[in-house]
């Protein structure tokens, strides 16, 4: 059953700076890292009393998506043609690059640059996934990195698995999230006409590419029943892609190893990496969010998005790829905590010497 905010006693979420420090003192983190953490030091929880409330239209949308997903799964085994089931698989794993190589590594983190044909391809793929417009997705993602595990993190994992996985999408945001959304520097995306065009036309594009294209293809090319195609190719497919992305916010912030920073929640999780085209190396990614590979050890088979970007770099459509050198890893180890809260390339809190090295990387613009 869904939670009922009439019956659940109101919970006040806020962690003051002092409480944070007390907790950190207890686990020994503060002594090691107090001097050189690159968190946004100007931020501490506003301590605003916050009673999270359910936003019912969003909750109903999630219930519809997930109930429809089960019906779609049933139809795959009882009604759908084999080609339709294969089409789901193909659509999930091609459109996924729009999330991983597109809205995540390119637009949220500026980990590499892309010429307009690649940006157009990525935004086409990303729109098929139906995960909001690029601007909104990247905004929340930058806030997530910059204020990770605080009141200002939109899907703060300290509020539990369910909240980080999906609950944040149908709960009123903490006032600190709203405040930080207004202060984030998004000027690079505002200057990208492809991003702003997709934002302006998002509703018709959703109808056309998230619903229309995936549903119509099986009907037109191999005479799939339109009813079956809708529940399988819109609902089931949409829900599967959503939950794979949700796993990065929930599972990859909870279960796995933390070889780069044991004091933050993100982990290295191989299963999430396989499902999410290489996005499960999340401890590394929160430490070095500008790295276009989002991982140090994942090779192409566990990080197919890196292969995708490298292939387009070979064509000259992707360039200026940023990645972590062994020296950066060493410096990071020495500082034991620096760099864990930057949103990507261009963040003012990237250490100066790392920035100097990043500027020289893969400069060749074709
Ligand atoms: Zn990220
Ligand atoms: Zn994260």
Report on the structure:
The chain has 17 helices and 2 strands. The longest helix is centred in the N-terminal third of the chain and has 27 residues, at 82-108. It has a two-stranded antiparallel sheet. The protein is globular, with a radius of gyration of 21 Å. Helix 4 runs parallel beside helix 12 and helix 5 crosses helix 11 (202-222). The protein is mainly α and 366 residues long. 56% of the residues lie in helices and 1% in strands. The structure holds zinc ion (ZN) (2 copies). One zinc ion binds at residues 144, 253, 266, 282, 286.
Q: How are the elements arranged and paired?
A:
Layout: H1 17-26, H2 29-33, H3 56-78, H4 82-108, E1 113-114, H5 116-129, H6 134-146, H7 161-165, H8 175-183, H9 187-190, H10 193-200, H11 202-222, H12 226-249, H13 270-275, H14 282-287, H15 304-315, E2 318-319, H16 326-335, H17 352-359
Antiparallel strand pairs: 1-2
Helix pairs in contact: 3-12, 4-5, 4-6, 4-12, 5-11, 11-12
The protein binds zinc ion (2 copies).
């Amino acid at each position: 059953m869904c939670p009922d905010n009439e019956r659940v006693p109101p919970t006040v979420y806020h962690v003051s700076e002092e409480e944070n420090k007390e907790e950190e003192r207890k686990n020994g983190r503060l002594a090691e890292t107090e001097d050189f953490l690159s968190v946004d030091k100007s931020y501490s929880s506003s301590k605003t009393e916050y009673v999270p409330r359910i936003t019912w239209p969003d909750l109903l949308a999630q219930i519809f998506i997930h109930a429809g997903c089960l019906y779609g799964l049933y139809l795959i085994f009882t009604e759908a043609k084999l080609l339709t089931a294969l089409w789901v698989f193909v659509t999930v794993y091609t459109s996924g690059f729009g999330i991983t190589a597109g809205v995540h590594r390119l637009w949220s983190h500026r980990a590499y640059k892309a010429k307009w044909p690649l940006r157009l391809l990525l935004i086409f793929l990303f729109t098929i996934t139906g995960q909001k417009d690029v601007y909104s997705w990247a905004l929340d993602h930058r806030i997530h990195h910059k204020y990770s595990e605080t009141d200002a993190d939109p899907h703060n994992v300290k509020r539990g698995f369910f909240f980080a996985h999906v609950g944040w999408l149908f709960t009123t945001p903490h006032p600190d999230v709203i405040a930080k959304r207004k202060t984030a520097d998004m000027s690079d995306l505002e200057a990208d006409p492809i991003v702003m065009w997709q934002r302006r036309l998002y509703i018709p594009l959703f109808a056309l590419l998230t619903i229309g294209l995936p549903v119509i293809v099986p009907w037109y090319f191999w005479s799939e029943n339109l009813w079956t195609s809708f529940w399988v190719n819109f609902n089931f497919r949409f829900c599967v892609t959503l939950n794979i992305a949700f796993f990065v916010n929930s599972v990859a912030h909870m279960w796995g190893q933390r070889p780069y920073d044991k004091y933050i929640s993100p982990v290295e999780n191989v299963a999430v990496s396989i499902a999410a085209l290489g996005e499960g190396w999340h401890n590394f990614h929160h430490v070095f969010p500008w790295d276009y590979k989002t991982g140090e050890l994942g090779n192409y088979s566990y990080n197919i998005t890196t292969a995708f970007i490298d292939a387009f770099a070979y064509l000259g459509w992707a360039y200026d790829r940023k990645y972590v050198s062994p020296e950066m890893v060493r410096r990071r180890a020495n500082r034991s905590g620096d760099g864990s809260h930057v949103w990507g390339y261009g963040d003012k809190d990237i250490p100066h010497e790392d920035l100097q090295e990043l500027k020289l990387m893969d400069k060749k613009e074709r």
